[in-house]
């Protein structure tokens, strides 16, 4: 099939999860034999990734994704020229350009939904809609879901209740299990000494990612005399300065800043524990539903690292307590530090890390994600053909 993928508000390449997701899905579908064309914002630091995917530079007007829909005429022109069998669009309330183009040319319309379509408790969108009387935000997002022949999401609960279940592919995102593995080699931006246990955090530094909780746990361990457990935090974002301040004067904490995604496999392989200290209290929608498909956890597991994370229902479906990692209770002070101490024992974490790698390869690779997506698109295409 020929596939057009509209992801114009994603900068590619970039180290954040959205960019990695778009690149991995595009390359995964290309590896299955599809002709894949992607509309994405070009990175100022380098060219689009090489390989079989065809990349077309297209950014939202003024770089503001809230203006994305103004690119609808450009997306339609590209679709008319390519005549794709399917158009995939990353959902955004102010988007819809891919769904409009698919409707115009009769292509299978695939909507990737990574954030709530319905309004979570406390959202200001319903208030805005009521002020505008005709509720344009709700009506437009509902139209996008109705226009989609297939909706791909990690959690069906974030979709409108009237979306027919046969049109939903509920699936996790994944990791590149060929690149992320325990033997990965490359530039490693930290050093370690014999006897060290290195806990690693890789993410955007936003409040709900909880990086500061890892720093606090290391401080608690130092107060108890544990100096062998070190922390490496990789990434950038609005919370980085606050985390740096919390780590000031604390021995054994390394903050590297952002790194190219190509450097992450070697960094994970050089560590011992992957930490995902999500703080759902810092982001109201996550208290309602943990709708993320956490890229870092899949990459930790693929790298053979046992995972430490707060006990959140959604995460318990990804890895299992005592089998691929351990959960801690974020309401209990010191529980993250205790979890790190448990995994400081090499004999304990070795078995967990091996099991994590096996589970990632079996269930959470980009290859398996794209195979499921390929099957679902074919079924949607066949259903469209039957209707016509």
Describe the secondary structure blueprint for this structure.
Elements: E1 2-12, H1 17-31, E2 35-42, E3 54-57, H2 72-82, E4 86-90, H3 97-105, E5 108-112, H4 125-131, H5 136-147, E6 150-153, E7 168-170, E8 197-202, H6 211-223, E9 229-234, H7 240-247, E10 253-257, H8 264-269, E11 273-275, H9 284-288, H10 295-302, E12 307-310, H11 313-316, E13 325-328, H12 335-342, H13 346-363, H14 366-387
Parallel strand pairs: 1-2, 1-4, 2-3, 4-5, 5-6, 6-7, 8-9, 8-11, 9-10, 11-12, 12-13
Helix pairs in contact: 1-14, 2-3, 6-7, 6-12, 10-13
Features:
single chain, 388 residues, alpha/beta, Rossmann fold, seven-stranded parallel β-sheet, six-stranded parallel β-sheet, 14 helices, 38% helix, 18% strand
Overview of the structural elements:
The chain has 388 residues and is α/β, with parallel strands linked by helices. The chain folds into two domains: 2-174 and 365-387, Glycogen Phosphorylase B (Rossmann fold, 3-Layer(aba) Sandwich), CATH 3.40.50; 197-363, Rossmann fold (3-Layer(aba) Sandwich), CATH 3.40.50.2000. It is built from 14 helices and 13 strands. The protein has helices spanning 17-31, 72-82, 97-105, 125-131, 136-147, 211-223, 240-247, 264-269, 284-288, 295-302, 313-316, 335-342, 346-363, 366-387, and strands at residues 2-12, 35-42, 54-57, 86-90, 108-112, 150-153, 168-170, 197-202, 229-234, 253-257, 273-275, 307-310, 325-328. The strands form two sheets. It has a seven-stranded parallel beta sheet with strand order 3-2-1-4-5-6-7, with helices on both faces. Helix 6 (211-223) links the parallel strand 8 and strand 9. Helix 2 (72-82) runs parallel beside helix 3 and helix 6 (211-223) packs parallel to helix 7. The model has no long low-confidence stretch (mean pLDDT 92).
